[in-house]
Amino acid sequence: MSYSGPTELYIDGEWTDSESSETFETVDPATQEVYATVAQASQKDVDSAVTAAYRSANRGSEWRSMNPRERGKRLHAMADAIESRTDEIILVESHDNGKTPFEAKLDVEMVIDTFRYYAGWADKIQGDEVPVPGNRINYTVREPLGVTGHVIPWNYPFQLAGRSLAPALACGNTAVLKPSSTTPLSALYYAEAAEEAELPDGTLNVVPGRGSTAGNALVEHPNVDHIAFTGSTGVGKGVMQGAAKNVTGVTLELGGKGPNLVFPDADLDAAASGVHYGIFMNAGQMCWAGSRLLVHEDIHDELVERIAERAESTPLGSGIDDDGRMGPVVDKSQQTEVLEYIESAKQDGATVAAGGGIPEDKEMGYFVEPTVFTDVENDMEIAQEEIFGPVLSVIKFSDRENAIEIANDSPYGLMAGIWTSDLKTAHTTAEYLDYGMISINEYPVTQPQTPFGGFKQSGIGREQGTEAIHEYTQTKNINVNLN
Ligand code: NDP
Predict the structure, then answer these.
(1) Residue 238: CB within 6 Å of ligand 1?
(2) Catalytic residue flag (residue 253)
(3) How far, rounded to the nearest angstrom, does the alpha carbon of residue 468 sit from its chain's CA centroid?
């Protein structure tokens, strides 16, 4: 099916070609065919977008001086506009990224909920009165940061853009969104929603383009006040350095190597289902994928058998087949990388319990079999590096301390799961895990109102929840001498 949605840049309330007239193609990973051709933003286009956003962020601008309740209404209107396009966005996301319609629907629903959640926040962002000595009044106000740049990866293109845009806009900031050049299409629907919700021109700008040009130009622009970056830890480090040139603040949502710790008293059916979902959803291309299964030695064989069975019977399907439960990975290079990790695991001595290659019946599309490795040691490459594909590493543990030690032996600290029927084991284990998010007897799970982010090299700052309100505002302290 051909694409008929937006393909131009959206700058200062106008749809426009790139100033260089350059375009790039996006490929449907299920068919390997070109799906759309999109305008490619240059450094100059990014500068125009930031200039427009800067104007709209200024004191006295329509957006900055808008009654916060009205700002909330506009965000509700954006949620309405997105909701009315749900079916179209699901289809586009599915063709652009390869995820199944089921997965794409979850993403769109999460975005609608996130916009509504932050729409409610718009008129509730307030400071404090601070007790000080003497005849003084001292108080704080929370002000918007100004222009926020949003650099988004390809694995959840629509959802991750909405995750940072909604709180940034609710706080009164303006935004420039740079989606991944691999999956740029759904981002353009935010521009349509902003138009329909009558956001003032320049408040939200969308500039699909390459990371090394458009992304870099946004990160290093002197008029950008904050960068919300979601992506790999490697690129995130470079983004932090680029932002440092102008002392621009950053929120970094980076990689992960999530462990699921399964204790002998766990409900094994529930654990098998949660572990399966946590690694094979979105073809394993998730920062919070539960890519390491740490299982007590007493239940190892039983749990592995259940998970391997589920993996082997997972139907693979093109992103647009409704009966396909796991889609392809996003492109050829991702497929090659995942297969290289699988080979390295075999050479390191891990045992294939399920999958382990390209499915025989899939001649087209970048599919990888749902793969389970046992006999994994935590210092092996597959246990330490983020594979970003449907590959699970199973590691045995002997007791709780040993499980915690293995779980924490990772450069990452995004999300960990605990499976047990004992409350004490659950809470004491949660306390000792160096992870930003812990989920007990469920994996993975998040809501617009729960903070999302990681410890260690999984990032800096938090999206979602009240935390994001702090992330996208700055505190001004005002002292009044009453003498
Ligand atoms: P990348 O880091 O490769 O890219 C992320 C974004 O950065 C893309 O828009 C990319 O553009 C852009 N970019 C690339 N180079 C630069 C640069 N020099 N300056 C500015 N921007 C640049 O990540 P992937 O797209 O490969 O996504 C996968 C990664 O994202 C995984 O590591 C995953 O764990 C992480 N992630 C983290 C999440 C979290 O919440 N913690 C959630 C989801 C994913 P382009 O694509 O055009 O190169």
Answers:
(1) yes
(2) yes
(3) 14
Given a contact cutoff of 8 angstroms between Cβ atoms, the answer to whether 145 and 223 are in contact is no
Q: Which residues contact 434 (CB under 8 A, 6 or more apart)?
A: 408, 413, 455, 456
Query: Are the CB atoms for 188 and 11 separated by under 8 Å?
Result: no
User: Does the beta carbon of 153 lie inside 6 Å of ligand 1?
Assistant: yes
Asked about 171 being catalytic, the answer comes back as no
Ligand 1 lined by 274 (C-beta under 6 Å) = no
pTM beyond cutoff 0.85: yes
Q: What is the pLDDT of residues 346-378, one digit of tens each?
A: 999 999 999 999 998 887 899 999 999 999 999
CA of 121 from ligand 1 middle (Å) equals 28
State the DSSP H helix or E strand holding residue 143, giving kind and residue range, or none if neither: strand 136-144
Residue of 253, 369, 386, 471 marked catalytic: 253
Give buried/exposed letters for 119-140 (b at 16+ CB in 10 A, else e). Answer: bebbeebeeeeeeeeeeeebee
Task: Give the residue carrying structure tokens 């990866």.
Answer: 153
pLDDT value for 319? 62
Closest to 175 (Cα-Cα) out of 57, 70, 325: 57
The angle subtended at Cα 410 by Cα 406 and Cα 411, nearest 5°, is 165
DSSP 418: E
